[in-house]
Design goal:
57% of the residues lie in helices and 12% in strands. It has 192 residues and is α/β, with parallel strands linked by helices. The structure holds BIS(adenosine)-5'-tetraphosphate (B4P). BIS(adenosine)-5'-tetraphosphate binds at residues 10-16, 32-33, 36, 53-54, 59-60, 65, 86-87, 89, 93, 124, 128, 136, 146, 176, 179.
């Protein structure tokens, strides 16, 4: 089974590259951001609770997202592998993901970390906010809060996987095609 984590700060291109990677490698795409937004659109109790955090640029509590991923994994027993996009975002999420995958007798094969400067992140998210309708993209203070939250809680997740030699930094600036090629080259090297 091929299990990939696409890692990086908000606006680093995770969602953009994930769409292409799942097609090329036949993986099941699991984006906690997408799942949360669909819960918000459906006005479910989980979505309404999550929205309070997302609108402030904060991470949604671990117990909520861990439960979501656990149920997504059990709903896809036939998957050839998973692409985790925006998950895990805390060390507690990473440890729980490792346990869930172990139960399926598999593990994370590679963590690809997209490297993008802070000015570029801000610019991309402000631009996306002009058309996305996402409440967390249309306010610069909320975008900055997401980046702060990333440095505080999410970047330690890369250190967690570095202990297992699974992390590869990939330049995340340039054209979408160029970045996709760099990601594929690293995956292909790893799965040979
Ligand atoms: P996400 O949905 O994961 O959103 P994101 O971090 O903004 O990244 P996204 O994947 O959407 O953007 P991308 O970089 O592709 O999370 C949203 C919120 O949900 C979080 O803030 C948090 O509150 C909550 N959440 C989600 N998962 C959670 C978890 N596990 N635990 C707790 N809370 C969680 O794209 C950004 C823009 O850049 C796009 O407009 C794109 O077109 C553009 N772009 C991409 N590549 C480019 C390139 N090469 N050049 C120029 N522009 C590019």
């Amino acid at each position: 089974m091929l299990n990939i984590i696409l890692f990086g700060p908000p606006g680093s291109g995770k969602g953009t590259q994930s769409e292409r990677l799942v097609l090329k490698y036949g993986l099941k795409h699991l984006s906690t951001g997408d799942i949360l937004r669909s819960e918000i659109a459906g006005q479910t109790p989980l979505g309404l609770e999550a929205k309070k955090f997302m609108d402030k640029g904060q991470l949604v509590p671990d117990e909520v997202v861990i439960g979501m991923i656990s149920s997504a994994l059990s709903k896809n027993p036939q998957a050839k592998g998973f692409l985790f996009d925006g998950y895990p975002r805390t060390e507690a999420q990473a440890e729980s993901l490792d346990k869930l995958l172990k139960l399926k007798q598999t593990e994370i094969g590679i963590v690809l970390a997209l490297m993008v400067s802070e000015e570029e992140l801000l610019q991309r998210l402000v631009n996306r906010g002009l058309t996305s309708g996402r409440s967390d993209d249309n306010n610069v203070d909320v975008i900055r809060a997401r980046i702060v939250e990333y440095h505080k809680k999410t970047s330690p997740v890369a250190d967690y996987y570095r202990k297992f030699n699974k992390v590869f930094n990939i330049p995340g600036e340039g054209s979408v095609d160029e970045i996709f090629e760099s990601l594929c080259a690293k995956i292909d090297e790893r799965i040979q």
